[in-house]
TrEMBL record:
This is Transposase IS4-like domain-containing protein. One of its GO terms (molecular function) is DNA binding. GO terms for biological process: DNA transposition. Residues 5-132 form the Transposase IS4-like domain. It holds the Pfam family DDE_Tnp_1.
Length: 189
């Protein structure tokens, strides 16, 4: 965590276990409807935690009314409001769900570049592709999930059939005539 702080970035983590710390500054049991119970500046005193983060941290205790429980957050950001710290941690799960949806539906398994611009371009291209295929699925009344349509189109890139033919039910045609093929009848008693 300290290396993240030294680069100029900030982090928000949830408390794991029961770390030992001393309160440098802060208030206990704040009143208000925002759910913030404590907003404190702390310093870890335990050997392990103090070694990992030797500087001051901010501790925010947030009570989630809908879950009827409190959460302890630690951050190196002293500028944001305590409520914003709690909301940022909560909203990070929405970001996680968004990327899970991208990986499942847009077939973006890995990012080909590492720059922010490249990742944005790859996500935008994947979303545009998904939307175009959804429009085609809707207009042609294919009646299949967009993910399945994407899979079929991806597997049929080199096939010269039209899109309509790709999604027609497959019909096997059998000829009843004698084509010279030897037929073996098995009769069991």
């Amino acid at each position: 965590m300290f290396s993240i702080s030294q680069t100029g970035a900030f982090f928000i983590i949830r408390e794991k276990g029961k770390p030992t710390y001393e309160i440098v500054d802060g208030s206990d049991f704040l009143e208000g409807d925002d759910g913030i119970l404590r907003d404190q500046t702390i310093r870890f005193t335990g050997k392990r935690n103090k070694g990992n983060y030797p500087s001051n941290l901010r501790r925010v205790v947030y009570y989630a009314k809908e879950l009827k429980r409190s959460f302890n957050y630690y951050t190196n950001n002293f500028y944001l409001k305590a409520k914003d710290i709690a909301l940022l941690y909560r909203y990070r799960w929405q970001v996680e769900l968004f990327f899970k949806w991208i990986k499942q539906h847009l077939k973006v398994k890995t990012f080909w570049g590492t720059s922010e611009n490249f990742v944005r371009i790859q996500i935008h291209v994947a979303i545009i592709t998904y939307c175009l295929i959804a429009i085609v699925e809707h207009d042609l009344k294919i009646g299949r999930p967009v993910v399945e349509v994407m899979r079929i189109l991806g597997n049929s890139l080199l096939v010269k059939d039209s899109i309509n033919e790709l999604f027609q039910p497959f019909k096997m045609e059998y000829e009843d005539g004698d084509d010279g093929q030897l037929c073996i009848d098995f009769k069991f008693n």
